[in-house]
Amino acid sequence: MSQLFTGAGVALVTPFTTNNQVDYKALETVIDNQVNGGMDYLVALGTTAETATLTTDEKSHVVELIKEKSAGLPVVVGMGGNDTRTVCKQIDKFNFEGVDGILVVTPYYNKPSQEGLYHHYLEVAKASPVPIILYNVPSRTGINMEAATVARIVEASDKFVAIKEASGEHSQMTKIAKYTPDNFTLISGDDLLALTISAIGGKGLISVMGNAMPKEISTLMHLALEGKYAEAREIHYKLIEMFQLLFKEGNPGGVKALMNIQETIENELRLPLYKISDATYSEIKAAYAKL
């Protein structure tokens, strides 16, 4: 199998109107910006999409709109959960037409063992008709999927083609790159670490900032993959303050504020998430003006 999901992907936000409805018109604009900005693939219903706050109908409409507006870019859909049977049933009932892969986060809250993670993902592999991206984000789920477990899962089924790694542990990411096959893609789950991961064998990024600055993010990633690290570093240095500011009060509050400054979307989130403070908004606005 050729290497899938390399380059720059984007974890799409879900824009909301001021009366807290999904703003599908604004979402169309966001998607168009990704296509025109050189991004390589689109990720629907990830963490950044505030998926946990969306109704079943809203999720369906969001995915259909992303597929419709993708202009041929691959589409990945988030399908994680903390009950294996429910995740597999969700996959069984899903319409996969126009979907190129699924992003499956480690089960959250119930904190399974490494053995539990292994068997969870093998059941997901049996159910999924499309390639699977593993998603490890311990800060949100309460459990870390170790490099040895990733290698074991990948060896057990060729359905697993990539991992979105957001542990922040450099040694773990290096071991994943070392012990998985060449056609398995190590993807950064953190904009700030995309350049670092590319230097140890990573070949992708699923970006948050890409929602607002797709051209800069896609260019950075493409230069890194071409081995043009000096040029990629210039962009990385240029964006470093913004990388940090966007996560100062959590995601997606920061990137939604930046997109509001750009007049792309309203600065609205759904509870329990809430918009960032006026002070941080002003910092982001000032940093963006310098860019």
Helical percent range? 40-55%
Low-confidence stretches: none
Per DSSP, the total helix count is 12
**Quaternary structure state of the chains depicted:** single chain
On the 0 to 100 scale, the average pLDDT is 96
Q: Give the SSE string.
A: EHEHEHEHEHHEHEHEHHHH
How many whole angstroms does the radius of gyration measure?
A: 18 Å
Give the strand order of the largest sheet, numbering strands 1, 2, ... along the chain.
1-2-3-4-5-6-7-8
Total discrete domains: 1
* Counted beta strands: 8
End-to-end span in angstroms? 40 Å
Strand fraction equals 5-15%
CATH topology: TIM Barrel
Structural class: alpha/beta
What's the CATH architecture name?
Answer: Alpha-Beta Barrel
Give a brief outline of the structure.
46% of the residues lie in helices and 13% in strands. The chain has 291 residues and is an alpha/beta fold.
Descriptive report:
The protein starts with 6 loop residues before the first strand and ends with a helix. It is about 45% helix and about 15% strand. An eight-stranded parallel beta barrel has the order 1-2-3-4-5-6-7-8, surrounded by four helices. The protein has one domain: TIM Barrel. It has about 290 residues and is an alpha/beta fold. The model has no long low-confidence stretch (mean pLDDT about 95). It has twelve helices and eight strands. It has helices at about 25-35, 55-70, 85-95, 115-125, 140, 145-155, 170-180, 195-200, 215-225, 230-245, 255-260, 280-290; strands at about 5-10, 40-45, 75-80, 100-105, 130-135, 160-165, 185-190, 205. The chain is globular and about 50 Å long.
